[in-house]
Specification:
Number of helices: 4
CATH architecture: Roll
Strand order of the largest sheet: 3-4-5-6-7-11
CATH topology: Restriction endonuclease-like alpha-beta roll fold
Order of helices and strands: EEHEEEHEHEHEEEE
CATH superfamily: Restriction endonuclease-like alpha-beta roll domain
Largest sheet: 6 strands, mixed
CATH class: Alpha Beta
Strand content: 35-45%
Distance between the termini: 49 Å
Length: 182
């Protein structure tokens, strides 16, 4: 018998001063049986960083043809495709062909090795952004994971703070590939 997803609820307050985005989101996250709390919280961070009324969590690990998050316009065209982890170059290039913008948020301690192995093969992707989250920070985020979460996210001058209860995690994302000018 297949294991079922564990459901997490998050009440997320976002104050993104860099984009003038101030919004509350009530989110339901389905954590795949093979997914860790750390990865789930990185998905939640990706949502907070790119928050938009049309940004949604997808089937993710349950469906190999979907990213972890995406934003579609009213016609169904994919505006933003977000992958969490270290996808292979074929998956990245396929996403770049399907979406207007693709973001990969890598968080493992071996992210430098992963990026060194695929960077030359995805360099031509003009709509690709690759961001590294230090693994020590992703482990701190994991501590915020609870079945019912009340979280506040503040973004200012590229710095991110995620607060849950009495705990605040400062997040410094490192962009290793930015989109090319068209």
């Amino acid at each position: 018998m297949a294991l079922k997803a564990t459901i997490y609820k998050a009440d997320l307050q976002i104050a993104d001063m860099d984009r003038n985005y101030y919004q509350s989101h009530v989110l339901t996250l389905a954590r795949h049986p093979s997914e860790t709390d750390e990865r789930m919280m990185v998905r939640l961070l990706a949502f907070a960083r790119y928050a938009h009324e049309a940004l949604t969590f997808t089937k993710g690990l349950f469906d190999v043809d979907e990213p972890d998050l995406w934003q579609k316009d009213l016609t169904g065209a994919i505006k933003l495709w977000i992958e969490v982890g270290q996808p292979d170059e074929k998956r990245i290039l396929k996403a770049c062909g399907r979406a207007e913008q693709v973001v990969v948020l890598s968080y493992a301690s071996n992210s430098g090795i992963w990026w060194g192995g695929i960077s030359s093969r995805v360099e031509r992707a003009k709509n690709l952004t690759v961001i590294n989250l230090p693994s020590s920070t992703s482990r701190e985020l994991e501590k915020l994971a609870q079945r019912n979460m009340q979280l506040q996210c503040t973004i200012q001058d590229g710095q991110i703070w995620l607060t849950g209860g009495d705990e605040t995690v400062q997040i410094d994302l490192v962009t290793v590939k930015a989109p090319s000018a068209f």
